[in-house]
Model the fold of this input.
Amino acid sequence: MLSQLPLLPVLLPLLGAPACALLRRPLAAWVFSCAVSVLALAAAIALLAATWQQGVLSYALGGWAAPWGIEYRIDLLNALVLLLVSAMGAAVLLGARASVWREIPEHKRTLFFVAYLLCLAGLLGIAATGDAFNLFVFLEISSLATYALVATGRDRRALVAAYNYLVMGTIGATFILIGIGFVYMLTGTLNMADLAQRLPAVGQSRTAFAAYAFIVVGVCLKLALFPLHLWLPGAYTRAPSIVTVFLAATATKVALYVLIRFSFTVFQVEYSILALPLETVFVVLGVVAVFAGSLVAVFEPDLKRGLAYSSVAQVGYMVIGVGLGTVAGLQASLIHLFNHAIMKGTLFMALAAVVLRLGGSTYAQMQGVGRSMPITTACLLLGGLSLIGVPGTAGFISKWYLVTAAADREQWLLVLLILAGSLLTAVYIWRLVETAYLAPRQSPASIAPRALEAPAGLLAVLVVLALANIYFGLDTRLPVQTAGGAANGLLAAVLP
Amino acid sequence: MDVFSYFNYWVVVVLMMLGFFIVIARGNLVKKLIGLNIFQTSVFILYISAGKVMGGAAPILADGVELYSNPLPHVLILTAIVVGIATTSVGLALVVRIHAAYGTVEEADILEQDATC
Done:
């Protein structure tokens, strides 16, 4: 059993999806999907524990040895991303019932859960595989499922958002395919560990530069790094609430993992810096993303859309960490990857509850929501504080590590910009506080009559997520040590 | 002479740019998908060309054959073709739904309708 462990988190949802399609009743499909995702989470936890004890786990799929067959290779970084994605996948699904029942028509609910499991399988597959082409296939599995999920939104604009995402996502994925094709032509291998050994020999050729450039642009499209973020706000705003929670907490995180994996393992950092002025490009784009995303978020009348733009900004912070190119920077980036998933999971989950009860998430609709939905609003606020980076929350830890990493490189301007970005976050979170607690409650006619707390299932998950923000703000061992170990592992090959 | 020996790759570049241009420049959602398809197909040709070994036989073991073409890129691209078909069908399904919801498949008209409502 233990020897099959690296495969389980991917295999369970991948086999669970078609099995789920056989279930006619939506409730049965939901219970089944929950069971599958919880089992996948259990496997991911066991995997992280195993990587701490034994180091890198390697699994030859179908018994074909590594450079020829597909290898699943789990080191600390993979295990961290697997844990994060499966945990958020399970948590979102457990709280999803009420919201899905409200937003998805009955005949589509079973298929909704099928698409959800497929998306989960794709994302976990990306995080587990050690084979570059296999990564592309899983990327497309998760993307196609995501397009379908986004299109199930009630608003017809969801269809247009899904279409735009499909076009952009396919261009991104095809760019990655071109890049992988080039490295295959250069080296004759698709295994990432094998590529890492063979690429330095041909590293100076123009083909290798082109390959890296194609892969970076393709991944940045998926990552929604400014200025390639145009699909994200539409998709996040129009998708059903539950899909937004899931995507915000997992999809961009996995894309960041791919960027890190290709930049630091496959193409090795020194060479990456040589190919492109990595540091400058990533740091500058990251800073621009922070400010562009936050500024739009400040003026956005719809909180859900505002938070979608805030995701663009937060991706900026993560990419700044990658751009610093040091162990500390990479560690900060990975910690933020972990913490941001929890923050945005909390925020969008709370918004799912708000949309469920109030029918929308504009500031106008949310006036006085702090009195009609006190627990939901408290969780929303907690997520917001964590997003700003208030001490005692998870967000503070990631900002702290990022600022320290920038200070280590003596980039004082960057430190200043990161802190200024946090201030902008505070502006739109304050706007939320003002609307929720200080604004007069709307007249009874315009507010939905049943503006009560969310149902227990959703609320329980929301409270757990909100408390996780505080827990990981106080007990930082899990993300910090794992991210530290992963960052050391990534840079061990190139740093003395 | 070199120009002609890389004939396949020139085709790839031309098709890729054509497809990419159609995706960006056309406002019709179906035409965009056609462009996307051409763009993807050019990458398929790139892979298939890379697998061909000059003078190599089809990769089936036989007596007296020393040189084989590389079958792996062809197998990879079979997978990518399946992915491409899936993408196209999801895209076309979305276009059908968009047409039902908006009564048009022109991007400009859709934007206009969204702006007015």
Q: What stands out?
A: Chain A has a mean pLDDT of 86. The interface with chain B takes residues 133, 136-137, 140, 144, 147-148, 151, 156-157, 159-160, 162-163, 166-167, 170-171, 173-174, 177-178, 181, 184-185 of chain A (CB under 8 Å). The radius of gyration of chain A is 21 Å.
